[in-house]
């Protein structure tokens, strides 16, 4: 007798090669979340190079995985003292190649509260205005003397050529802020009109070996040797032009009038002029100076001035002031 064995179909068993749509979506979402988490972790742990500028002026470069300013400072044992400021703020996040700057605080004076109108506030923020200004200034004429032959019967000095001042054009760059001049720099200089020398014919025979010079209410008496010394010192200090020589003797005369002394005494003051500093001036003794130096000294002793300063230095020293004949007066 045969036995019948019934075989049930396997259609109800799960098939391993197939996935439902629901499972696919679930896996995709989990993958996205996982990658985002990994990206954030990688970003937060990324190595950064940060430059730190301390208030002392010291500069250091550090490598860190931290992002906040305060954490980076703590890692490097940097203390921010009272009154110091940190840029950017300690709570800020930094990117790679950023800079942290620590500066010393400034003294703050608390003033009484004052109200300002909108017009006054706007005026305080006005920008700097720059203008090119051209000015014309006079170039003082020189005075020269011309000795007449001994046979002349005229015993009086005579002006044979009147002096005429020249004209020089100076171009400046002038800066203003809030209507006030804050700087004035020379751009260029150009002589428009050359000065004409004043020429005096000297006919009186010199019989005295001393010179009496009156300036205002003062009377300065110099011997011929004293005059030679004045010429020599003046020439050594600035003997390249009449204006330069006049500026030097003017400086000594200004001091003399202020102190109640005389120009030669000012020349001899210790460490003031070349007389006590070196002996180069001696090569100009006994009349070995240009005639315009003598004229400048005589003119200054008789009251002529080309500035009102009391001190000067050579231009190479870099001091600021008025440049006359290679020296800067201030």
What report would you give on this structure?
With 330 residues, the protein is α+β, with helices and mostly antiparallel strands. It folds into 3 domains: 48-103, Phosphatidylinositol 3-kinase Catalytic Subunit, Chain A, domain 1 (Ubiquitin-like (UB roll)), CATH 3.10.20.90; 126-203, Single Sheet (Resuscitation-promoting factor rpfb fold); 208-330, no CATH class. Helix content is 28%, strand content 28%. It has helices at 21-44, 69-75, 118-124, 224-238, 242-259, 263-267, 274-277, 291-301; strands spanning 48-53, 59-64, 85-87, 98-103, 129-139, 143-147, 158-161, 166-177, 180-193, 198-202, 210-215, 218-223, 312-314, 322-324, 327-329. The strands form 5 sheets. The chain has a 4-stranded mixed β-sheet with strand order 2-1-4-3, with helices on one face. A 3-stranded antiparallel β-sheet has the order 5-8-9, with no helix packed on it. β8 (166-177) and β9 form a beta hairpin. The longest helix is centred in the N-terminal third of the chain and has 24 residues, at 21-44. 17% of the residues are buried. Residues 1-7, 11-17 and 205-210 have low confidence and may be disordered.
SSE topology sketch:
Blueprint: H1 21-44, E1 48-53, E2 59-64, H2 69-75, E3 85-87, E4 98-103, H3 118-124, E5 129-139, E6 143-147, E7 158-161, E8 166-177, E9 180-193, E10 198-202, E11 210-215, E12 218-223, H4 224-238, H5 242-259, H6 263-267, H7 274-277, H8 291-301, E13 312-314, E14 322-324, E15 327-329
Parallel strand pairs: 1-4, 6-10
Antiparallel strand pairs: 1-2, 3-4, 5-8, 7-10, 8-9, 11-12, 13-15, 14-15
Helix pairs in contact: 4-5, 5-8
């Amino acid at each position: 007798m045969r036995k019948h064995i019934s075989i049930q179909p396997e259609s109800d068993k799960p098939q391993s090669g197939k996935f439902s749509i629901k499972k696919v979506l679930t896996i995709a979402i989990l993958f996205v979340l996982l990658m985002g988490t990994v990206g954030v972790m990688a970003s937060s742990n990324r190595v950064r190079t940060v430059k730190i500028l301390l208030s002392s002026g010291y500069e250091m470069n550090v490598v860190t995985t931290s992002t906040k300013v305060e954490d980076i400072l703590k890692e490097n044992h940097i203390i921010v003292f009272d009154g110091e400021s940190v840029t950017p703020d300690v709570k800020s996040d930094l990117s790679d190649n950023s800079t942290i700057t620590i500066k010393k605080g400034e003294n703050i004076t608390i003033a009484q509260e004052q109200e300002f109108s909108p017009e006054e506030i706007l005026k305080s923020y006005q920008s700097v205005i720059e203008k090119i200004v051209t000015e014309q200034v006079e170039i003082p004429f020189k005075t020269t003397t011309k000795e007449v032959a001994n046979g002349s019967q005229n015993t009086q000095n005579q002006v044979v050529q009147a002096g005429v001042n020249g004209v020089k054009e100076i171009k400046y760059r002038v800066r203003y802020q809030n209507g006030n001049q804050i700087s004035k720099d020379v751009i260029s200089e150009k002589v428009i009109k050359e000065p004409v020398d004043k020429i005096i014919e000297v006919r009186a025979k010199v019989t005295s070996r001393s010179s009496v010079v009156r300036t205002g209410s003062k009377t300065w008496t110099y011997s011929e040797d004293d005059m030679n010394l004045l010429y020599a010192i003046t020439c050594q200090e600035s003997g390249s032009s009449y204006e330069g020589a006049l500026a030097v003797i003017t400086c000594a005369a200004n001091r003399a009038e202020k102190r109640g002394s005389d120009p030669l005494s000012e020349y001899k003051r210790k460490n003031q002029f070349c007389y006590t500093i070196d002996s180069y001036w001696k090569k100009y003794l006994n009349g070995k100076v240009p005639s315009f130096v003598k004229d400048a000294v005589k003119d200054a002793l008789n009251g002529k001035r080309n500035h009102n300063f009391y001190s000067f230095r050579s231009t190479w020293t870099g001091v600021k002031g008025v440049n006359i004949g290679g020296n800067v007066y201030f």
